[in-house]
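for the writeup, i need someone to sanity check this before i put it in the appendix. the sequnce is what the collaborator sent (i think, or maybe the updated version? ugh). structure was predicted straight from it, no edits. if anything looks off just tell me and ill rerun, i have time this weekend
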Amino acid sequence: MSIKRSNILPVSFIFIALTISSCGGATEEIEPTATSISTLAEDGSDSADPASDEAAADIVMVTGECANPYFPVVLDANWTYAASGSELEPYSFTSTVSEVFPDRFTLTHHFDDLTLTQQWECKPEGLAALELGGGAAASLVTGDVDLKLETSNINGVTFPSAVSVGDVWTHSMDASGEIELGEGMFGTMEGQATTNFQAVGMESVEVPAGSFEALRVATEFILDMTVTVDGASIPVVFTSTGSSWHVPNTGWVKQTSETTVFDVPTTDTIELEAYSIP
């Protein structure tokens, strides 16, 4: 993954890329044998009338290992989000399922002047991000910085196939690569990204796209890297804690997070504005 960016993206976008949902209900467990997805209006309402033949044609059944109750892996499904943070001007982006295969899929994230991609793997135990979200690396840079990162040793999943409220799980990956800091300064980066999740419970949430009953997932993200420049190694640790809200057959609709970089905290809120699931 290679990213060159002249404007900063929030560190919280790491959180977006690796944030997970699961299922709701105190004891309920959802198995992803088949996920029924209706065509949805931009206001979050169900535009399909189950009683009509036309509506029935709009129902898509997602089966196999890529089926997940809280992540509709459907080609061309897209979600547009509005984001604001304590250190940034408000911005928006759209995430699209741009490729789907039996055992993997691709997410493409579109910003005003930047397009990033992220590869995912579909496994029996769930969906696993294989990269730092495309946006994850970009979120670490500011100014004229060129960052190239490769990920490896993927462990765990980001979206489990089935989970009960109170369950905890972890997703991690190693990351290494090169960084250009500008003015002829070059270096290397290596370390690990780890995300810890806990399914908390169902809550009512209201966002621009509508009102939903959503599962809240508490998330802790830690990016522990070592940057080496001119033979000198510097440890750099990014931490982010917060919550995300996920709706069955819809996806994640809201996220709040507090990120600490060099002991300086920032807060971010991201909300779903509109979505379409073909």
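The mean pLDDT is 74. The helical segments are 12-18, 53-57, 135-138.
thx in advance!!
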